[in-house]
TrEMBL record:
<dbReference type="InterPro" id="IPR050645">
    <property type="entry name" value="Histidine_acid_phosphatase"/>
</dbReference>
<feature type="signal peptide">
    <location>
        <begin position="1"/>
        <end position="18"/>
    </location>
</feature>
<keyword id="KW-0732">Signal</keyword>
<comment type="similarity">
    <text>Belongs to the histidine acid phosphatase family.</text>
</comment>
<keyword id="KW-1133">Transmembrane helix</keyword>
<feature type="region of interest" description="Disordered">
    <location>
        <begin position="448"/>
        <end position="474"/>
    </location>
</feature>
<dbReference type="InterPro" id="IPR000560">
    <property type="entry name" value="His_Pase_clade-2"/>
</dbReference>
<protein>
    <recommendedName>
        <fullName>Histidine acid phosphatase</fullName>
    </recommendedName>
</protein>
<dbReference type="InterPro" id="IPR029033">
    <property type="entry name" value="His_PPase_superfam"/>
</dbReference>
<feature type="compositionally biased region" description="Basic and acidic residues">
    <location>
        <begin position="563"/>
        <end position="594"/>
    </location>
</feature>
<feature type="region of interest" description="Disordered">
    <location>
        <begin position="560"/>
        <end position="610"/>
    </location>
</feature>
<keyword id="KW-0472">Membrane</keyword>
<dbReference type="GO" id="GO:0016791">
    <property type="term" value="F:phosphatase activity"/>
</dbReference>
<dbReference type="Pfam" id="PF00328">
    <property type="entry name" value="His_Phos_2"/>
</dbReference>
<keyword id="KW-0812">Transmembrane</keyword>
<feature type="transmembrane region" description="Helical">
    <location>
        <begin position="481"/>
        <end position="509"/>
    </location>
</feature>
Length: 610
């Protein structure tokens, strides 16, 4: 009896201690990295550029509000939960604390703008005070302006949003799926599906010959938009007991299947293969860079170094290709079949760097110096199910068990580094790209600083089929030329090449150089009363003028004819006379500006499909 009582007492004490410890545990988020798919836009099969719809703007604004509730301010746990990032400005946006990156597509920029309006709404009480005491209200009721970085396809930053752009290797790997036996079997099994589609639905944007399984992603994208905005198409595709029953759902299933194979479907996380998932690899590099620089900058600040703190909140806005690729590389498809589908508009992949502390007195803005105290959590925001389940759903990465949704930073960092594209030169080599920023590129420094702890320096042989990581990574700086030395070498090489070209022209084309001697002008025509042999005879030639009786004619010179009687000035049909008679405004069109001739419509860049 005594033994049982003692065991029960010990058990009660252990449970009480565990509950007390759990209550004192504090989760402190130090950084967040999110990749957000655009809000609803017009389809790619259209006659104009894609634009963000009103529904898409509302989706992004609401998502921005939810992010604000989680990381900045608000007490509503019914949205995305509450995990404050200490130190973030609450009311007024501080662009040094937030990194916003996207492509230079108008609908993506608009998506980022709508999101940021929800994250930092206008301040109605914002005013500016002048020296004379006058108060001036800010425009648009205190609208806050965000620094949104948009990258064109010729900008290296574009690879962080869609690494498959200008990447022939990725595009070739993706297109290989269309020649596989799996695709041919799927195409054969669904041949009758595309026979049911009417090419007139697409308003001339899709030829009849392209109405097949190879265009399933674009077709589903177009019909999804029409299904939501065109009442005729909605009734046609949702009607029962017709030839089109189930066609819309079947098209969506095929589009998901093809997108998974074109962008993801990685059997492992080996860097040497899975080139179709390069978009996910570049996104993984941006993620790793964000967390590493955040840790490094905070530790440098704690040491008293003068460095610029890394933004604690990084927001990337793009399309589904990068999301599917990264999900495949993280093996998220083993946790949920949803990751094998095209994410819905305004869905988000979120990574959080946090620490766990049992002390309430520790400064929440300080990152622990012990690497074992740092953790990473991945969560997914499914916009389709957001109304029923607004909370973020955490998933384990890299094949961990369902209960291991939180992974130590010391374990997460090397796993992500193994799948990430580390820099511009690495991407250019992997893609065999000839884009402008790959021409003569030299990776003189890594994209991210050496991790202060927990980092794994790339070594030869880490990846069997990878090039020398030391050349690309941390040791590349030691082998790189200084910019001044490189400039001198370039100038010398240019001069040598120019000299060789001139030498070849002299030898082969007969090019010769000679000095032209300056001739002394003949001034004999100035000698009066003396015949001369001047060739030119002065500026009037060798003729003797009536006003020059004392000048002698040159030999064989022609005598000046009798002067003609001077007549009055007369020009027949002269515009000057007409102007004088009728006035200068007759027949003259005043032109105030030439600006109209300089206006050229901006060219619309076609979307590069895979």
């Amino acid at each position: 009896m005594f033994v049982r009582t003692s065991i029960a007492a010990l058990a009660s004490a252990w449970v009480a201690a565990a509950q007390t410890s759990s209550q004192n545990t504090t989760y402190r988020t130090h950084a967040a990295f999110a990749f957000v798919r655009t809000g609803e836009r017009t389809p790619f099969l259209s006659n104009g550029p894609q634009t963000l719809t009103a529904l898409g703007a509302k989706q992004m604004y609401t998502l921005g509000e939810n992010f604000r509730t989680r990381y900045i301010a608000g007490d509503s746990p019914q949205r995305l939960g509450v995990q404050r990032i200490a130190g973030l400005s609450v009311d007024t946006i501080n662009n040094d604390q937030i990194w916003v990156q996207t492509l230079d597509e108008p609908y993506l920029i608009a998506s980022a703008q709508a999101f940021m309006q929800g994250l930092y709404p206008p301040r109605n009480s914002s005013t500016g005070q002048l020296a004379d005491g006058t108060s001036v209200d800010y425009a648009f009721s205190g609208y806050q302006y965000t620094n949104i970085r948009s990258a064109s396809q010729s900008d290296p930053d574009s690879r962080s949003i869609s690494g498959s752009l200008n990447c022939p290797v990725a595009q070739t790997a993706a297109l290989n799926y269309f020649s596989s036996q799996d695709f041919r079997a799927m195409e054969s099994a669904n041949a009758d599906l595309f026979d049911k589609l009417d090419v007139n639905w697409f308003n001339g944007t899709l030829p009849q010959s392209f109405l097949d399984a190879r265009s399933a992603i674009e077709i589903d994208d177009y019909l999804s938009y029409q299904y939501a905005h065109n009442s005729t198409m909605f009734e046609l595709l949702s009607a029962n007991n017709t030839n089109l029953t189930g066609v819309y759902a079947q098209l969506g299933y095929l589009a998901d299947q093809i997108a998974w194979n074109v962008y993801g479907n990685t059997s492992s996380s080996a860097r040497a293969s899975n080139n179709q998932a390069i978009s996910g690899k570049t996104l993984a590099g941006s993620l790793l860079n964000s967390f590493r620089t955040r840790i490094a900058s905070q530790l440098s600040l704690s040491d008293g170094a003068l460095v610029t703190p890394s933004p604690p909140l990084s927001l990337y806005f793009g399309e589904e290709d990068a999301m599917i690729s990264l999900a495949a590389l993280l093996r998220l498809d083993t946790q949920s079949p949803y990751f094998r589908t095209i994410p819905s508009y305004s869905s988000a992949m979120i990574f959080e760097l946090f620490s766990v502390s049992n002390s309430t007195t520790t400064d929440a803005t300080q990152i622990p110096t012990d690497p074992s105290a740092l953790w990473v959590r991945f969560s997914f925001h499914n916009a389709t199910a957001a109304q029923n389940n607004p909370q973020l759903t955490a998933y384990p990465v890299f094949g961990n068990g369902p209960s291991n949704t939180e992974i130590p930073w010391t374990e997460f960092e090397p796993l992500v580094a193994a799948i990430a594209v580390s820099g511009v030169a690495h991407w250019c080599d992997m893609c065999s790209s000839e884009t402008i920023f790959c021409t003569g590129v030299q990776d003189s420094r890594p994209d991210f600083p050496d991790a202060p702890y927990g980092g794994r320096r790339p070594k030869k042989g880490d990846d069997d089929d990878d090039d020398d990581d030391d050349r690309r990574g941390f040791n590349a700086k030691a082998n790189a030329l200084a910019p001044a030395v490189a400039g001198v070498i370039g100038a010398v090489v240019t001069l040598v090449v120019a000299a060789l070209v001139f030498a070849l022209l002299m030898l082969c084309a007969g090019l010769r150089f000679h000095r032209v001697h300056k001739q002394t002008p003949n001034l004999n025509f100035l000698k009066r009363n003396k015949p001369t042999t001047a060739t030119l005879g002065g500026f009037k030639g060798s003729a003797k003028m009536a006003s020059d009786p004392d000048l002698a004619l040159a030999q064989n010179g022609a005598a000046m004819p009798d002067p003609v009687k001077k007549a009055g000035h007369e020009r027949v049909g002269s515009w000057e006379l007409k102007q004088k008679e009728l006035g200068k405004d007759v027949g003259e069109r005043n032109r105030e500006s030439l600006d109209a001739d300089d206006v050229v419509p901006r060219a619309v860049e076609p979307r590069n499909g895979v």
